[in-house]
Design brief:
Strand content: 5-15%
Organism: Mycobacterium scrofulaceum
Shape: globular
Structural class: alpha/beta
CATH architecture of the largest domain: Alpha-Beta Barrel
Number of helices: 16
Helix content: 40-55%
Number of domains: 2
InterPro entries: Aldolase_TIM, NMO
GO molecular function, one term: nitronate monooxygenase activity
CATH class of the largest domain: Alpha Beta
CATH superfamily of the largest domain: Aldolase class I
Pfam families: NMO
Strand order of the largest sheet: 1-9-8-6-5-4-3-2
Oligomer: single chain
Distance between the termini: 16 Å
Order of helices and strands: HEHEHEHHEHEHEEHEHEHHEHEHHHH
Protein name: Oxidoreductase
Number of strands: 11
Largest sheet: 8 strands, parallel
CATH topology of the largest domain: TIM Barrel
């Protein structure tokens, strides 16, 4: 069963589902698994590790995968874009920063550009930069984003904006899409597919500790919080308008909302955090997941997740063959 949309036709894929390029999580095996199952897999380019990027592209073993970059970080390591473009990726996704001059280089290389937006202004700038696909990300999403908008209201706003300014440009919904119900809702809101992170985080192909999986499977969306505390202890210089959704734990009980106190104790907090990461101690270490974490029941292969998601969405939409858009 497939759901046919402008996204599937543009990329020549079977299902309108794209793997979120989660930094340090969406490696080559996961990206390849999503692509092989009929979606589009994106490797998470992360914060500037050229060796990691090379290894993960190699682990994709020739599958048609793309790559996502944190744009403000890419500006400090522009050579990573060259390394990715040399792999002839299926797409490059840019998020969380100024799109230029990267957009021009990506388009000049003949590679599709996916641009993520958290506001209508972000979406306008993405369309002006010539993005081939725009991702509308609501605050429900895991990892980094903004609290400004929810997926349910942002998606139709961006869909209407794209229809007005660049008819034919596909829009993806991101944030809270965890099963077929979320995919069906995204399509009903006018999106051409979904960018999915948290659900694929809970796969054996993801670069995730089994201890983190175990902890997340008993959690609910109520236990997640948007915070800057982890950026401080990881010494990541994120722009102030962004924060990250993470699963609550004793570390956040102490430091979330207490940025001044954390800054004063930063040396000790950084050491504690790094020790916790090494020990896989998730009372302190970060689990960056979205509100959809409460819908995770077990760790499953990416291919099984994708097939079930599409089947459930098609049933909800009451279409036995395809959804034409």
């Amino acid at each position: 069963m497939s759901l046919d949309t402008r996204l599937t036709r543009f990329f020549g894929i079977e299902h309108p589902v794209v793997l979120a390029p989660m930094a340090g999580i969406s490696g080559g095996r996961l990206a390849s698994a999503v692509t092989s199952a009929g979606g589009l897999g994106l490797v998470g380019g992360g914060y500037g590790d050229a060796e990691w990027l090379r290894r993960e592209f190699d682990l994709a073993e020739g599958a048609s995968v793309g790559c996502g970059f944190i744009t403000w970080s890419l500006a400090r390591h522009p050579e990573l874009l060259d390394a990715a473009l040399q792999r002839r990726p299926a797409a490059i996704m840019l998020s969380f920063g100024e799109l230029q001059p990267f957009a021009e280089r990506i388009r000049a290389a003949g590679v599709p550009l996916i641009a993520q937006a958290q506001t209508l202004d972000h979406a306008r700038r993405a369309l002006d930069a010539g993005a081939d696909v725009v991702v509308a990300q609501g605050g429900e999403a895991g990892g980094h984003g903004m609290t400004a908008r929810s997926t349910f209201t942002l998606v139709p706003d961006v869909v209407d904006l794209a229809a007005e300014r660049s008819p034919g440009t596909p829009v993806l919904a991101a944030g809270g899409v965890t099963d077929g119900r979320g995919l069906a809702a995204a399509l009903a809101l006018g999106a051409d597919g979904a960018l999915v992170g948290t659900r694929f985080w809970a796969t054996p192909e993801a670069l995730v500790s089994p201890r983190a999986h175990e902890r997340a499977l008993t959690a609910s969306g109520d236990q997640t919080v948007r915070t800057r505390a982890y950026d401080l202890v990881r010494r990541l210089d994120w722009p102030p308008e962004y924060n990250a959704r993470a699963l609550g734990n004793p570390f956040l009980d102490t430091w979330h909302g207490n940025q001044e106190g954390l800054a004063e104790s930063l040396t000790e907090a950084v050491a504690d955090y790094e020790n916790a990461v090494a020990a896989e101690d998730f009372d302190t270490a970060a689990i960056l997941v979205g509100e959809g974490v409460g819908l995770l029941r077990r760790v499953r292969p990416a291919a099984d997740i994708l097939a079930e998601m599409v089947e459930q969405a098609a049933g909800i939409l009451n279409r036995t063959a395809s959804v034409q858009r």
